[in-house]
């Protein structure tokens, strides 16, 4: 048996999230991948994933792994997979890893990116990958608020009901807000994320950008541990899982150009 790790990208628009569900709910990323593998080698496998992305959420750096007895050379797995996968899912890399590797539990930290189209008239080219916010956003105020979210906190305020986590302490290494060509982009890098945590953080930062919340209110919102204090959940389609790291490298080293430490 070999333990195969895949790095993949997908457009989540047409999928009912990552996790396999009953077929009446619609296609999922996991279900599609497992069905393709069964066609390729006539073997049923169960994928473990770094992040169970929700309906409509995308990924440019998702990671999965599975145990297999198939002898297909690892370097040929991406091409074999991609020959049968729909065009909105692509395997980017395959490699053999130790048997104790697990895509979820072995992860050290993850990076999510969230995009907002902050133009009055939404772009037709980003409509599937950026939520539309027609009200001008104050990015400087949003960054001030984001700075106050960084560090290790109890993020229960930013956890939606229905999650399986029993503890709420997480480390948010960096929360960066920037504007590029009409898009406001929030990047969150942390050692783990609660159910809908990034989307709730983004929704809260949206309210800061609109002037509905002051940056200095953020510590009190975190300390309250009350979900209602964090306001809306940002729409799913603006979110993408960008990177999952399995080494002891610091995220500030890996993303040193993207994530400069505040001075």
TrEMBL record:
One Gene Ontology biological process: tRNA pseudouridine synthesis
| Xref: Pfam families | PseudoU_synth_1
Q: What class of enzyme is it?
A: isomerase
Q: Where is the Pseudouridine synthase I TruA alpha/beta domain?
A: 9-104, 145-246
Please list the reactions this protein catalyses.
uridine(38/39/40) in tRNA = pseudouridine(38/39/40) in tRNA
Q: Where does substrate bind?
A: 112
Q: Name one GO molecular function term.
A: tRNA pseudouridine(38-40) synthase activity
Q: Which UniProt keywords apply?
A: Isomerase, tRNA processing
Q: Known EC number(s)? A: 5.4.99.12
Query: Active site located where?
Result: 54 (nucleophile)
Q: Please state the span of the N-terminal signal peptide per the UniProt entry.
A: none
- What is the documented function of this protein? Formation of pseudouridine at positions 38, 39 and 40 in the anticodon stem and loop of transfer RNAs.
Please give the subunit comment from the record: Homodimer.
What family does this belong to? Belongs to the tRNA pseudouridine synthase TruA family.
Q: What is this protein called?
A: tRNA pseudouridine synthase A
């Amino acid at each position: 048996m070999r333990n195969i790790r895949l790095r993949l990208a997908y457009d989540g628009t047409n999928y009912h999230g990552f996790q396999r569900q009953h077929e009446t709910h619609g296609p999922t990323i996991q279900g599609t991948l497992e069905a393709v593998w069964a066609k390729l080698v006539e073997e049923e496998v169960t994928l473990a994933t770094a992040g169970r992305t929700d309906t409509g959420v995308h990924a440019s750096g998702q990671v999965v792994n599975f145990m297999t007895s198939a002898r297909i050379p690892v370097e040929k797995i991406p091409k074999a997979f991609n020959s049968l996968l729909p065009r909105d899912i692509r395997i980017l890399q395959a490699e053999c890893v130790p048997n104790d590797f697990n895509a979820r539990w072995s992860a050290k930290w993850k990076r999510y990116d969230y995009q907002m189209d902050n133009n009055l008239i939404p772009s037709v080219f980003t409509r599937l990958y950026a939520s539309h916010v027609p009200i001008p956003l104050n990015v400087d105020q949003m960054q001030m608020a984001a700075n106050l979210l960084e560090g290790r906190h109890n993020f229960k305020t930013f956890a939606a009901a229905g999650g399986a986590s029993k503890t709420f302490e997480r480390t948010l290494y960096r929360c960066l807000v920037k504007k590029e060509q009409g898009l406001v982009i929030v990047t969150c890098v942390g050692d783990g994320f609660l159910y809908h945590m990034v989307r709730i953080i983004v929704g809260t930062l949206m309210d800061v950008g609109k002037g509905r919340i002051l940056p200095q209110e953020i510590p009190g919102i975190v300390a309250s541990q009350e979900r209602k204090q964090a306001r809306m959940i940002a729409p799913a389609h603006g979110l993408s899982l960008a990177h999952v790291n399995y080494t002891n490298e610091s995220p500030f080293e890996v993303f040193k150009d993207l994530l400069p430490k505040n001075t």
